[in-house]
Amino acid sequence: MATENKLFDKYIPVLKNCELFNGMTNEHWRELLVNFHEEKWPKETCMVNHQKFLFHFYIIVSGRIKMYNVDEFSEKEHTLFLLKESDVFDLFCLMDGTRHHVYYECLDNIKVLAIPMDKLKLWLNKNPVYYQHFLSYAGKMMRMLESNVSQLIFTDISTRLLRLLVNNVNSNSKQLEHINDLPNKEIANLIGSTRAVVNRHLQRLKKNGSIKIARKQVEIKDISILLKELENQNKKI
Amino acid sequence: MATENKLFDKYIPVLKNCELFNGMTNEHWRELLVNFHEEKWPKETCMVNHQKFLFHFYIIVSGRIKMYNVDEFSEKEHTLFLLKESDVFDLFCLMDGTRHHVYYECLDNIKVLAIPMDKLKLWLNKNPVYYQHFLSYAGKMMRMLESNVSQLIFTDISTRLLRLLVNNVNSNSKQLEHINDLPNKEIANLIGSTRAVVNRHLQRLKKNGSIKIARKQVEIKDISILLKELENQNKKI
DNA sequence: GAAGTTATGCTACTTAGGTAGTTTGCATTT
DNA sequence: AAATGCAAACTACCTAAGTAGCATAACTTC
Predict the structure, then answer these.
(1) Which ranges carry the HTH crp-type domain (chains A, B) (predicted)?
(2) Which of A116, A174, A218, B143 has the greatest count of CB atoms below 10 A from its CB?
């Protein structure tokens, strides 16, 4: 009884921010958290088709994990999602119980709350009200993936890079977050391009004064220039 | 009472083939079908953000409907899904109840079974067992979208076209189905390219003897050549 | 503080795919 | 059967993005 209260008290803000369990009462949280335990994974931990992922469900409480795909022939990587605080995984395995062919890598030192998949399923059957939550969350993910697909088809690398930057500016601090300390290679993986090409575009943005770059560091200097560029990208036929 | 029995008897094979309701008993089908009615939409009917779609859920019983996206600037189209017999839509609206920003167009004369969204939701709440079905179906769709994204990033147009062809060969008849009577433009929309480029690749395939083409007609002549081409595409770095 | 590693910056080159425009041919309509 | 319209075929051209390679800078670690 003490454990789950401790977990809950410790991570209230993170858990409350968890979209999948949006609006869940404290009582239900405590009931669910009985089954959770905390795990720590060091930075750069790489999880390749880990059996464990079929059997556990995780809530990230601190750090970033990239979920990515590797092309078996070209060995190129594509980052599908950059998971962070309050994100959960793997929803896919929860939903249909089959193995999800993706890879995971910790970009920071990670803390997660873990629950055995079958216990989550039991809890869900006991509280079927939350099925609705899960469905609508899945719906949101699908829309995200769908717009992702369209963006890949409709827009060029330069636009995709601009969007990536603009979408990761914290509206309060006006500073780039989540992706600000990634090397060019990781940025390329996020938008489906290569290091050289991303660097070419970043250099252009540096020259027009909108960003500042250093080793593993991108900083926004003038977001209005970025926004203007984005508009022009759209206009040019 | 007569109506839903008639609907069920009329469309047994189609409904039983419906993945979303996979394994549902006849009794449950009859219970659910009470709320359905049949609708016919003529070929080329175009549905643009139809309010109706928020309030109804459809099962296609005959004909094809393309679900597509349009880039507001370039006005290019991208076909997300080619829905056919036994497919359902719009799952997204069912799942989170918000408007789905896509377009629909009937490629054939269409027959659908329609149910008011809230009645489906009521039925689902009465039979929460089926939430699990819906979740796992959504999971499958997500995996599909995900692999779609990766394919766009990892493979070129030529490979995407080859895959499209190979994936739509009926394993019994060995003939191309679903996409065999589409104009080049529609094929282009399916793989995220343009008519001219698709035609260029089709000409190449015609020359190597793997396909036969005519106005709005693609026919497989030798699938082994297509499969060999696909293999080579993968090998070349 | 030397050696090794990783990330960036840049140049030069190649190529697939997009674009534009014209011709040809098939099919529907009147 | 003539006329219209759409789809396909083909040519020529342009460009963004991928590729290869190397020099330099910035961190590690021993």
Answers:
(1) 155-224
(2) A218
Domain identity same for A172 and A204: yes
CB contact under 8 A, A131 and B131: yes
Tokens 């469309």: give the residue.
B11
Statement to judge: residues A200 and A111 lie in one domain: no
For residue A149 the two structure tokens come to 């697909």
User: Which residues, in sequence order, are CB contacts of A226 under 8 Å at separation 6+?
Assistant: A162, A165, A166, A205, A210, A211, A220
Model pLDDT for residues B78-133, shown as the tens digit of each residue? 999 999 999 999 888 888 888 888 999 999 999 999 999 999 999 998 998 898 89
> Which of A101, A135, A169 represents a domain boundary (last residue)?
A135
Contacts of A235 in chain B (CB under 8 A): 73
Q: How far apart are CA A159 and CA A203, in angstroms?
A: 15
Q: Are A91 and A124 in contact (CB under 8 A)?
A: no
In A46-165, beta strands by DSSP E: 46-48, 56-62, 65-70, 77-83, 88-89, 103-106, 110-116
Identify the domain containing residue A195 by its residue range: 153-235
Counting the structural domains of chain A, the total is: 2
Express each pLDDT in A88-138 by its tens digit.
998 888 888 888 889 999 999 999 999 999 999 999 989 988 988 998 899
| Å separating the CA of residue B19 from the C1' of nucleotide D5 | 41
Contact check, Cβ <8 Å, B74/A154: yes
pLDDT digits 0-9 by tens, A136-167: 899 999 999 999 999 999 999 999 999 999 99
Task: Judge if B119 and B55 occupy the same domain.
Answer: yes
The answer to whether residues A164 and A48 belong to one domain is no
B94 contact residues in A (CB cutoff 8 A) = 135, 139
Bases along strand D below 7 A from a protein CB: 6-12, 16-21, 26-27
